[in-house]
Amino acid sequence: MTSDDELYRVHNVFLGPRGFTLPWRARYSAYGLCVSFALVALAVESRMGIRGLWPLLFTVAGAVAATMWAEDFITYECPVRAYPRILAHEVSAPRPRTPKGRTVAMSAAAVRRRPVL
User: Fold this and answer.
1) Which of 5, 47, 54, 117 is least crowded, fewest Cβ atoms below 10 Å from its Cβ?
2) Residue 100: what pLDDT?
3) DSSP assignment, residue 110?
4) Cα–Cα dist 99/78, whole Å
């Protein structure tokens, strides 16, 4: 995503140690997000009893892919720390009550058809 605003055109990225730049550009939030995705996946794998080199490699690749997908939604207007709050507000938002005992049933006979020309 590119911005025409000069203030937000500069990305807060970690390029690597001085003199040894990394071959990719990633924001600081991406590193923390990738580590958290990997730790959650490793915890799930350990509870399931999955061990070995290949599952570890797939976990790391999956964490990188999930991070790349998540970073599409993370911007300067809506940072990572805003998404748990958004989720909490969405879950706890008041919803209109539906009357109990009301069942909706669909029937193919109720669908009107037009003749084919």
Assistant:
1) 117
2) 74
3) G
4) 37
pLDDT at 86 over 80: yes
φ and ψ of 78, to 5 deg: -135, 85
Give per-residue pLDDT as tens, 55-84: 899 999 999 999 999 888 887 788 888 989
CA-CA distance, 43 to 56, in Å (whole number)?
11
Report the alpha-carbon distance of residue 72 to residue 1 in Å, rounded.
8
- Tokens 């029937």 sit on residue: 107
Separation in Å, CA 88 to CA 6, 28, 93, 109: 33, 24, 8, 42
SS3 assignment, position 51 = coil
Token pair 């999955």 in the structure block, residue = 50
Closest CA to 34 of 56, 7, 66, 8: 66
